[in-house]
Request: fold
Amino acid sequence: MSHQTKKSLGQHFLSDTAMIEKIVRAIDPKPGQRIVEIGPGAGAITRPLLKRHGALTVIEFDRDLIEPLTALGAELGAKLSIVHADVLTVDLTALAGGGSIRLVGNLPYNISSPILFHAIAHLPAITDMHFMLQKEVVDRMAAAPGSKVYGRLSVMLQARCRVTPLFKVPPGCFRPPPKVDSAVVRLEPRDPAEVGLLQPRRFEQVVRAAFAQRRKTLRNALSTVCTPDQIEAVGIDPGARAETVAVADYVALANALGDESVPAALAPEQD
Reply:
């Protein structure tokens, strides 16, 4: 399945056979599971998944790839459902049809973070995710507090998923080779009861504000969200910086603030 990659879409197609097999083994599809591949591209992972599993749904934005993908399904005599759309517009919950889906994919580098946040929004319908991304992004996803790369992405994902980097994928495994290393990562949804996140919107607001200016202390970074006393009340030092605060502490602060607890002096003016 030959196709000219499009730089505008961030396309780097996997071409190393041994690495492709390693990724499929990591996914380890089981009978009866509903697997959805994001960005199948030239079908490098699609083909072995169809051979092994017999059924697959793919979400592909590039219209030039729809016909070759259709031909691939016919060639293998497999059940291949193609959703021709931008994945960010696809209702993954509806796609699961009341059941659960497993997401896989070599995510386009230029929109990998938006795709991750989109998937998180549909987490109750997702069993797990296996994605290939820039290694730098995977490092941020899995980073611990105190790390230089621990940030908003780390906190938002780890509050909802167990993030497990699996292995590195060097540039030579792709066509064309990217300028950076890639890596495969597994995300498994955490039990909501274990996380205890009661205020998801407030949580997102707190985390976004905390990391908006990394050099600021939380006292200053969160000045439009809460008071230093409210920060201290959940055991967080208002003088700490965002990158030193654990995920559980951000959850605790968001829960304590609730929906209605923005101090009147800090609340936005109403029209």
Remarks:
- The beta strands are 13-14, 34-38, 55-60, 79-84, 101-106, 126-134, 161-169, 174-175, 182-189.
